[in-house]
Amino acid sequence: MMEDCVFCKIRKGELTSSKLYEDDDFMIIKDINPQAKIHLIAIPHMHVPYIDMMTEEGALLLGKIMSKISHMQEELGITEGYRLIINQGENAGQTVGHVHIHILGGEKLDEI
Ligand code: AMP
Ligand code: ZN
């Protein structure tokens, strides 16, 4: 449910967050439980619970967001490289049912 969604609540200002960027398509916030020196989350405004439910329109939006991230490396502090992750479902450890892209960087990351 959108009403119960943590990321939609952040978007509406009902929950506080460290918001670094927002435009008409998405926002970038700091993850509250960082898994790397820099751990940000890019969150489309569009509420889609799982990446496996994504429409072609939504996929195009995610591509646009990835392109924007690539042009924001300086301000995000990830010019030395970064990793983008989308978790899908239980085995991947997805905890928030609103598709989002993790941005990890700011240090040498473990190889995967
Ligand atoms: P996932 O496990 O892929 O669903 O990612 C959800 C992420 O959201 C986790 O890394 C959480 O630490 C992060 N998170 C949950 N609630 C908040 C919040 N209120 N502000 C910032 N990050 C959050
Ligand atoms: Zn949502």
Question: Cα-atom Rg, whole angstroms?
Answer: 13 Å
Ligands bound to this protein structure: adenosine monophosphate, zinc ion
Spatial order of the strands forming the largest sheet: 1-2-3-5-4
Low-confidence stretches: none
Order of helices and strands: HEEEHHEE
Number of helices: 3
Structural class: alpha+beta
Spatial separation of the terminal alpha carbons: 33 Å
Tally of DSSP β-strands: 5
- Percent helix, as a range, is 10-25%
Biggest sheet descriptor = 5 strands, antiparallel
What is the percentage of strand-forming residues?
Answer: 15-25%
Structure description:
It is a single chain. The protein is an alpha+beta fold and 112 residues long. Helix content is 22%, strand content 22%. The longest helix has 15 residues, at 56-70. It contains three helices and five strands, in the order αβββααββ. Strand 1 and strand 2 (26-30) form a beta hairpin. Strands 1-2-3-5-4 form a five-stranded antiparallel β-sheet, covered by helices on one side. The chain has helices at 6-11, 56-70, 73-76, and strands spanning 19-22, 26-30, 38-44, 82-85, 101-105. Bound molecules: adenosine monophosphate and zinc ion (ZN). Adenosine monophosphate (AMP) binds next to loops.
